[in-house]
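Weekly sync, protein design subgroup
Attendees: M.S., D.O., the rotation student, P.L. (late)

Item 1: inverse folding check
M.S. brought a backbone from last month's batch and wanted to see whether the design step gives back something sensible before we order anything. D.O. pointed out we never logged the input encoding, so this time it goes straight into the notes. Structure tokens as presented (446 positions):
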């Protein structure tokens, strides 16, 4: 251990934060979980990342890699181990103007990306929150406001620069290390530290974005009509339905339909959005033309002591009616979790299921339930939540890794269908045979 530490102090040019240091308390927290790591390392270069990975492996310490630190399961910190906090690697650079190719540091956030690309009239299909990291979101999917038109964030990944468990730097793309490139697109942080992502951006004008609300009593018809409309709506339209919003009255909260139309033509936007307005009694509608960057919101950091339980699943076309019926009932009942249903399909569905390690290509919808509160409240809600998911189980498939608080074997099996998991385990054996990168929805080496 002492010689590993000596090598680290010699080779590492970034910040090394240890218990007792002034910055330690803030540095040991991810957004949702407080940890007590032995070292938080803040690399400033790829060389620093190599030194940090080698140190963790040589010292035999558990390793956590933090991009934006937003994983619901708290993967961005640990107890007693090493945290590599990539926040210093956040450069955003347009490397090919004609192909709209952008190189992004492994620790950048989507807010930083939007700020850098907006002046160039570009945006990347990503999430809805500024502070979320490019790293975690991209490596497990990426469902954002351009998802139906341009696919998941990982569908727009062209190459990645990766520091492997052995401390080597490799470039993964369809030509170089194609097996690793396949695994990175859905396999999460299992395969190395991505120090740079090369992603295709899309010319982006202002977009029509906003929220249309309906009375809670109309939830069943609104949800059904919403899903029916999205099936044939232009792919420029992406939408999220929120039920039982705890900040707007819980089970009595209006049904919120968030819409984003990727374009600035009012006629086309109205044609795509108006059928949603006709689904019921509109009680609020603030849809307006806005800069794309303004569709991203600031993420809330829960106050200390507040815990979150987040679960997710996908619904294929044939299951959508049953799933929405159950969610509508649940959303209107006392003690309902917050429910968010996101449209997918479109460009996501045009990618073959085995082309990337994200396999849930047939899904029309992805939905999430979130229960939040002090520990006793969350624990007391457990049986209700289990009963809800038991009802949903016959109708849903898989799980979306980016919206899961837990990381059990069952979760890993839900995220990765058997054949995807088998291939991932093979790639893992090749690039990380000792499972150095284990603080994630872990795929063990085969
Ligand atoms: C407020 C909020 C809003 C969200 N909105 C969306 C949304 O709109 N769409 C969506 O799809 N998801 C969304 N998510 C989910 C989000 O995609 C996940 O929480 C994701 O894990 C966050 O990535 P991160 O880099 O911030 O997290 P981290 O906790 O830093 O990382 C998550 C995982 O990825 C690994 N990782 C991160 N960066 C790297 C890297 N560079 N190299 C190797 N491994 C890395 C980590 O080791 C960890 O295992 C949201 C989450 C929150 C909390």
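Designed sequence read out in the meeting:
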């Amino acid at each position: 251990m002492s010689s590993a530490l000596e090598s680290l102090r010699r080779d590492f040019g970034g910040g090394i934060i240890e218990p007792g240091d002034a910055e330690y308390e803030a540095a040991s927290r991810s957004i949702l979980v407080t940890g007590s790591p032995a070292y938080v390392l803040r690399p400033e270069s790829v060389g620093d990342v190599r030194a940090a990975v080698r140190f963790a492996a040589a010292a035999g310490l558990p390793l956590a890699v933090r991009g934006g630190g937003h994983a619901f399961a708290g993967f961005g910190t640990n107890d007693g181990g090493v945290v590599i906090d990539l926040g210093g690697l956040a450069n955003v650079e347009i490397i090919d103007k004609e192909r709209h190719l952008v190189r992004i540091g492994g620790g950048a956030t989507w807010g930083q990306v939007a700020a850098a690309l907006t002046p160039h009239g570009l945006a990347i299909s990503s999430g809805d929150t500024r502070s979320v990291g490019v790293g975690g979101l991209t490596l497990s999917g990426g469902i954002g406001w351009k998802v139906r038109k341009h696919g998941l964030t990982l569908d727009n990944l062209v190459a990645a620069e990766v520091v492997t468990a052995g401390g080597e730097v490799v470039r993964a793309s369809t030509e170089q290390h194609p097996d690793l490139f396949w695994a990175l697109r859905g396999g999460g942080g299992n395969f190395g530290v991505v120090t740079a992502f090369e992603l295709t951006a899309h010319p982006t004008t202002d977009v029509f974005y906003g929220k249309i609300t309906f009375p809670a009593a109309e939830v069943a018809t609104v949800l059904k009509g919403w899903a029916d409309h999205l099936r044939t709506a232009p792919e420029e339209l992406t939408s999220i339905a929120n039920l039982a919003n705890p900040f707007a009255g819980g089970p009595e909260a209006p049904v919120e339909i968030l819409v984003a139309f990727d374009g600035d033509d009012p006629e086309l936007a109205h044609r795509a959005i108006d059928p949603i307005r006709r689904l019921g009694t509109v009680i609020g509608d603030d849809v307006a033309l806005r800069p794309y960057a303004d569709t991203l919101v600031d993420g809330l950091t829960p106050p200390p002591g507040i815990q979150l339980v987040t679960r997710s699943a996908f619904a294929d076309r044939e299951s959508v009616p049953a799933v929405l019926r159950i969610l509508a009932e649940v959303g209107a009942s006392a003690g309902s979790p917050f429910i968010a249903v996101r449209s997918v399909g479109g460009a996501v569905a045009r990618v073959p299921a085995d082309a990337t390690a994200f396999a849930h290509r047939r899904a029309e919808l992805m939905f999430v339930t979130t229960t939040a509160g002090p520990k006793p409240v969350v624990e007391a809600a457990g049986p209700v939540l289990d009963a809800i998911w038991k009802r949903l189980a016959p109708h849903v498939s898989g799980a979306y890794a980016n919206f899961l608080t837990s990381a059990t074997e069952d979760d890993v099996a839900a995220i990765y269908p058997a054949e995807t998991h088998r291939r991932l385990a093979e790639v893992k054996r090749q690039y990380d045979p000792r499972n150095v990168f284990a603080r994630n929805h872990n795929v063990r080496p085969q």
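Discussion: The domain at 88-204+419-431 is CATH 3.30.465.10 (Uridine Diphospho-n-acetylenolpyruvylglucosamine Reductase; domain 3). The longest helix spans residues 375-392.
Action: P.L. to compare against the previous round before Friday.
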